[in-house]
Amino acid sequence: MFTEAIEDILRDHATAAAVRAIEGGASPAPLWAALADAGFLELMAPESAGGAALPLHAIGPVFTLFGSHALPLPAAQSIAARALLAPTGKAAPAGMITLAGQCLRGADGTIAAPLLPFGAIADWVLANVEGGMLLLDASQASRQPSGVHGSLAATLVWTARDLPGPVGDHGERVRDCSAAIHAAAIAGAMGRVFDMTLQYCNDRSQFGKSIGKFQAVQHQLSVMAQHVAAAGIAAELAFAGDGPLPARMPVAIAKARTSMAVPLVAATAHALHGAIGVTEEYDLQRYTRRLHEWRMTDGSEAYWNRLAGQALLAQPQATITDFVRETLAA
């Protein structure tokens, strides 16, 4: 029900033209208001706080939907921030909230959030700082854009005098939520990239027939489809638990698998599209740019594979199948 209602809003407001405009510096306020005024920011908040208390398995498709529309707003992060703040008793502030899964503390007491997703436009940052959870005012930070075309990521730095006290001691949950969100976003964007590539191969003709009829192209599409399907299943695992927030090991598996698929899926899509895929007017690059950015956000597959591998090696008697089954059950 929520997914269909949100998709209607995105179809009307998160058009390709609107996304490009926001990437180019236009105000995100109209698109943000369309989501916020409909009450969708409270989907994960508990009922005691006026939220819908949506279970994880129901919120996962919403976050995937955001990825499939290349939503240029921290909507998923703002939804998760309300669930993260609920146990602390701290009310979520108005405006766009993004998540900083890992911040760096300088010798002079400054706090830096490197290449923060939506750091260029966010009003607030819910940050993991050495295991503590801080709610930081983005307007008090210096912002350094990533320099990547169309990216809304930026590095934010706060001086020591601008830092509030922690609002909670579960900062690591911020990173888990952020990684789960990006796993879902990758899965959604990959699905859109595959659909675009398949359609192009069916429409593009060469030597009197569509290039999708050639066996070499079909092989590439088949491999691409396998990775897209695996990424989608992995993203679902991150939101398969009964708790109010994603758990660490399912998130590790999801983020590792979705990130691992990015280079192959993006490269295959561009190879089959040819030169048109990188043009500003064509939508493919809007998604593949994000896929590469989201792959690295919160740690690439190398980081999350290491966490999952260490957990597996800590149970030497368990098979991989048992490990995955028990991890998901836990």
From TrEMBL:
It comes from the Bacteria. Residues 181-303 form the Acyl-CoA dehydrogenase/oxidase C-terminal domain. The keyword Oxidoreductase applies. Its cofactor is FAD. Belongs to the acyl-CoA dehydrogenase family. One of its GO terms (molecular function) is acyl-CoA dehydrogenase activity. Keywords: FAD, Flavoprotein, Oxidoreductase. This is Acyl-CoA dehydrogenase. InterPro entries: AcylCo_DH-like_C (IPR036250), AcylCo_DH/oxidase_C (IPR009075), AcylCoA_DH/ox_N_sf (IPR037069), AcylCoA_DH/oxidase_NM_dom_sf (IPR009100).
